[in-house]
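lol ok so funny story. i was supposed to be doing the assay writeup but got distracted and ended up predicting the structure for this chain instead. priorities right. anyway since i did it might as well share w the group, maybe its usefull for someone
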Amino acid sequence: MTDDTLARRLAERASQPLEPIYDLLQRIADEVLRSRPRRATLTEAHFSGLQRMLADLLRDEHAVWGMGYIAAPFAVEGKERYLAWWQRRDDRVARLRLNFDPTSIDVYDYLEMDWYQLALNGQQRVAYGPYVDYSGSDMYTITATIPVVGEDGTFLGIAGADLVVGEVERKLLEVLRGAGDDTLIVSTERRVIASNTPRWFVGSRLPAMPTVGPPDDPEAFREVADMPLGTGWVLAVAWPTHT
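and the output, tada:
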């Protein structure tokens, strides 16, 4: 990645409105850790405070479809799968309940999801998508997660949130509109998160991650910078088009 002035400045500014999402996830992770008894096994009964907190947070956070804690296998006593997740439907907030029966045709196996696997494998901030979550919220979303790790280093699962793609795009466009050049933000899956030009539309997938190259290369960009958000997203400034 280059360290060009315009791309770097825009990347820093575009990261700022998304930082509160990860602050929110840290609050969830901290509550999970507070709920964990020091000399006893963690059970579902220990999460009464967490459940109340999730419901209250979701009522006030309209940029999020749902949020909660998703446990590693048997991190919660007797639960190979466990999910404390609250979701908004219109103006109603309710706990989400999914089918974890491995013999069922519609089983929801979150252990295979990229947003879980990336956190399990050490990525401190994950932002996966945009995608349609057919097996969970049925919403067009970006899933943000962070790992939840105990004081003893045990991976306990993830704290996560399903973000409203339109709200994420709106916040990023407030920055990109002032760029003066065609600019886009791309996820680690090469999905376009936001763009200030119809050259790329949200959710489309680039053939490769943006790289700097000469103006006569149709796939090259003038400037590329990592976003300091820490999710692996990059911001790219295109060469001017000639019509």
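The longest strand covers residues 140-149. The beta strands are 64-71, 83-89, 92-95, 126-132, 140-149, 155-164, 183-186, 192-195, 221-226, 234-238.
back to the writeup now i swear
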